[in-house]
């Protein structure tokens, strides 16, 4: 909302097409757009914060960083997080065949979200902290869960291909150490 002083000034203006009225209207529009942009950034940070909070909950209590194989399993589990809700929607739809599709909007949002996340994980990667690196893992565990402090975490694009290649590298290193 624009500041009250600007609104009071606008109320005092008599003629709707005066220069002062138009200038105040532009000022109000500018303030509204600025606030809308702030809300957009807050929403993005909140979505990312919720995603990271899910991962933080799953790795809580771990001492050492994840192996690439464990991280891949954790991401697969993350991609299945809505399976229970989709199952409930299917049950409700099966019971009431005469009604219109009750939860169509929620089901569409879930399927779209999961489709995009699966596509990102198979392709360029999901933006997540590198939980295979000890330093990043420690910082992630120290994170307080606040969406505003997400910017202090080092995020990386993690894909299935990168995790599988990292797993091959770690296996080769352990085999090398076993030989020595």
TrEMBL record:
Q: Which family does it belong to?
A: Belongs to the TMA16 family.
Show the stretches that span the lipid bilayer: none
GO cellular component terms attached to this protein's record: nucleus
What is this protein identified as?
Putative translation machinery-associated protein 16
Q: Which InterPro entries match?
A: Tma16 (IPR021346), Tma16_sf (IPR038356)
Pfam families named among the record's database cross-references:
Tma16
Q: Which organism is it from?
A: Anopheles marajoara
Domain of life from the UniProt record: Eukaryota
Q: Which Gene3D superfamilies match?
A: Translation machinery-associated protein 16-like (1.20.1440.170)
């Amino acid at each position: 909302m624009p500041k009250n002083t600007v609104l009071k000034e606008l109320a005092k203006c008599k003629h709707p097409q005066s220069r002062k009225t138009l200038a105040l209207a532009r000022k109000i529009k500018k303030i509204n757009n600025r606030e809308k942009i702030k809300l957009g950034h807050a929403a993005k940070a909140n979505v990312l914060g919720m995603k990271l909070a899910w991962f933080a909950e799953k790795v809580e209590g771990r001492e050492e960083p994840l192996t690439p194989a464990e991280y891949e399993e954790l991401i697969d589990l993350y991609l299945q997080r809505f399976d229970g809700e989709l199952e409930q929607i299917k049950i409700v739809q099966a019971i009431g065949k005469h009604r219109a599709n009750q939860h169509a909007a929620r089901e569409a949002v879930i399927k779209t979200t999961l489709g995009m996340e699966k596509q990102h994980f198979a392709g360029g990667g999901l933006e997540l902290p590198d939980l295979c690196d000890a330093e990043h893992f420690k910082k992630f565990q120290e994170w307080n869960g606040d969406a505003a402090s997400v910017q202090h975490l080092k995020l990386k694009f993690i894909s299935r291909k990168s995790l599988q290649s990292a797993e091959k590298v770690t296996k080769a290193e352990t085999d090398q150490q076993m030989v020595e």
